[in-house]
Amino acid sequence: MEYAVLGVVVPLLGCLFSAASSTRPECTIMQEIEEERSQCLAELIGDNQTSGCRRQWDNITCWPEAEVGEVVVRPCPKYFRFLTTFLGNVTRNCTSQGWTDVYPALYAVACGYDSNSTPGEEQTAFYGTVKTGYTIGHTLSLIALTAAMIILCLFRKLHCTRNYIHMHLFMSFIMRAIAVFIKDVILFESGESEHCFVSSVGCKAMMVFFQYCVMANFFWLLVEGLYLHTLLVISFFSERKYFWWYILIGWGAPSMFITAWTIVRIYFFDVGCWEEIVESPFWWIIKTPILVSILVNFILFICIIRILVQKLHSPDVGHNETSQYSRLAKSTLLLIPLFGIHYIMFAFFPDNFKAEVKLVFELVVGSFQGFVVAVLYCFLNGEVQAELKRKWRRWHLERFLGSDMKYHHPSLGSNGTNFSTQISMLTKCSPKTRRCSSFQAEFSLV
User: Is the pTM of this model over 0.90?
Assistant: First the structure.
């Protein structure tokens, strides 16, 4: 009967919570049971009692040694906290024949487990919807970001420090989406629970890669904030020199923290597939840098908005008050997804605070951040659109002139200007018109 109880509890919890967290609750249950079993069996070896009832492990609870006629009362197993707020006690008597059955009822009843009051279809549907939502979000983001990366890589006129930083941010979003898909397949789709105790090196490497991608994504959001703030505050600075520092912050800093976390997990907390993060004190090695990056980016966001307000109210800006506030609002909305400001809402609250709202906001809404950033800072960017239109017009012009030359066979003109030179002259723009500040290009939507 004890196995029957576990057979109901463990799959139910896995179904309810697997979509909502990287930690599988059935692993938490099984790990707690395994720890209690190991402790019980270790103490059993040291027992020297020859009369009465010996220490016993009944697959759920450890019953201590007792004399004949003694009544032993034990609290319900801790993992029942996932199912009910009422945790009762179970009792067994030690007789000359050995231990009696558990009373006043079986574990499930005595410990307050009620299948009718246990979260069922509605909560299962909710977590299933959350998983579907962030899968769709990461898929759209992956497609949009890949297209944006191709555009920024192909057109040489778009190669500048600002777009290089955007490309690194796009890559961090792409890596994060891929890591989420791999993690879900390994942890939730395989249907296996062996990784709760003995996990392969590949499973742990996957979790290391996942945590690195998440942290790198937050740090590249921080780099975006640092770069834009530097543009506004410092009049002249070496973008090339600063760019390598941005590379070290975006990719190097997460490597240091993830390496430290990996070493600590190997030597001090090598349990399961390393997906257990909530109750692990070593989780702060990862969580602290992420929280700091969120906080710093929020401060930079406030500073940049203050600078924008000052610029919009300067006498050089020839717009009315309504237009100024409209530009400010648009600029603010553009910065929110680029800086990841929405993460500040739940960053410093406990993990169990408004858990369902937090899940929807961070998992579902957060999964669309890459898509929004790709649309705003690539597809709707004025420079990108101008370059795409220029290439499109040039392609049409080449096709038109090429077909015209095919029938009329024109020769080189007396002035030495050939077909290629004509195309170059038609598509060439003056250096003055191409030159614009990075800050102006950043807000080309405003």
Answer: no
